[in-house]
Design brief:
Length: 188
Amino acid sequence: MKLERIYCTQCGADIDMDIKGRKAVFCPFCGSQFVIDDGEKTITKNINIHKRYTNDAEVEKQWRKDRENERQHKEYKWTMIGIVLFLVFDMGLMAFMALHEDHIEQKKVEAGMIQIGQSAEDFEGKKYQGVVEQLETLGFTNINTVDMDDSGLFVRNDTIDNITIDGNSSFYSTDYFNPDSNIVITYH
């Protein structure tokens, strides 16, 4: 018997294996089967054992669906990360602002300023003598009262019509003022 190199008839790969006593060989590269010529007969039929039974259109459709699902998952993930980062930043900013406001309030208290505790609207309609006592108790020293001298049938006597602090008639309960701020109480 004459020895020769064996090449796959389908893909042309060099096949290096013991073929002694074999009549057919499978190519380890492409899976094609071919018969070995022993010199007595020649068979040229190739059989591919790795025959595909796939629909390329379905494979492409599934591949595109998988890619779209992956894209949506990434989009969802980044959206959630963005929301979490926004919330963390927002909470941090709110905490910083609260600390800053506390620090400012502490500085005002240390500077001897007084928090009024009521808004301008809260004082309206109250008896002016009680409000004067309340403001003096808080530590205000420059309180002036103005009698409008308009009490009558429909107006309650000695009630506050308007109150200003340093000329400002619109203040809030959280505002701070100096103890010597000019407070003018106008009453009926």
